[in-house]
Amino acid sequence: MDIMTATTQRTTTADTIAPAAETTREHAARYVWAGTRIALGWIFLWAFLDKAFGLGHTTESKSAWINGGSPTKGFLSFGAAGPFKGVYQDIAGATWADWLFMIGLAGIGVALLLGIGMRIAAVAGGLLLVLMWTAVLPPENNPFMDDHLIYAAVLAGLALVGAGDTLGLGRTWANLPLVRKYGWLR
Predict the structure, then answer these.
(1) Residue 27: which pLDDT band, with cuts at 50, 70 and 90?
(2) What pTM, to 2 d.p., does this model score?
């Protein structure tokens, strides 16, 4: 039997071939990625909750979004630095910027915690993190690298390895008709 015939035969009988057994290393890696996904999801969701409700960690109750505070005004007005400082100061406190920022934090956090929409969460989260990185160029402790870029890379890794399938709803999400039709929703 030639290679082409063997490949065709394997493809046509793929549903009857048992998947390869998972190694201990692969099993452990799945759980490490799942734990990382959940931890990063909590970072995003906590930022949303603290800014929305003024839980006192970095946002006082009187400055909470529900009490009329702006989640973007303080940092973008006084914390932005570097070549994009003017751009960020111009959008500081804008209603549209507040809404986009808060929807982003909540959506990315929930998606990561549940393990759904990992591709969208990775792209949106990566974009948000890179924008946050550009707001403080150059970073305080390094000429160019900081945690925002590391988190963006981790988000890409989470999506690439399907981290939502372990300790998450990723498999169930992937089987929804809409998600099966539009793979980018995976």
Answers:
(1) very high
(2) 0.87
